[in-house]
């Protein structure tokens, strides 16, 4: 029995879930980059002067939105990668702070969790 209390078929199941999620994240990042490229083109076509360009504020707003989505996707990808490397190291499901088991219910809800619920609660404050 590992420190996580998870059986290897369970860890293997999480690995599949995480790999799927990684593929989706990578796809999202790709289409997002394409949208941002389109937007850049639209922006430069519209002219560099945002102030006198009625499309300017709209494009800026859309850019901030895409930028936020991209940051979120990058953060998720990072979390998924970290979880996958914990699987490779055999520490998946073990709280990185207290070393206790994270628990299957929490991992089912959030496979990228690296803290047990108690540590997550205390770090959120
Ligand atoms: Zn903990």
Describe what you observe in this structure.
- With 125 residues, this protein is an all-alpha fold.
- It has a domain at 8-91.
- It is built from four helices and no strands.
- It has helices at 8-45, 56-89, 104-109, 117-124.
- Helix 1 runs antiparallel to helix 2 (56-89).
- The chain is elongated and about 60 Å long.
- The mean pLDDT is 89.
- Zinc ion (ZN) binds at residues 95, 97-98, 100, 115-116, 118-119.
- Zinc ion binds next to helix 4.
Rg is 20 Å
Oligomer: single chain
Number of strands: 0
Order of helices and strands: HHHH
Estimate the mean pLDDT confidence. 89
Approximate shape: elongated
Bound molecules: zinc ion
Distance N to C terminus:
33 Å
Q: Which residues sit in consecutive blocks of at least 5 with pLDDT less than 50?
A: none
**Count of helical regions:** 4
Residues in helix, %:
55-70%
Query: How can the largest sheet be summarized?
Result: none
- The fraction of residues assigned to DSSP E strands is under 5%
Structural class by helix and strand composition: mainly alpha
Keywords:
125 residues; mainly alpha; elongated; binds zinc ion
Short précis:
By secondary structure, the protein is mainly α.
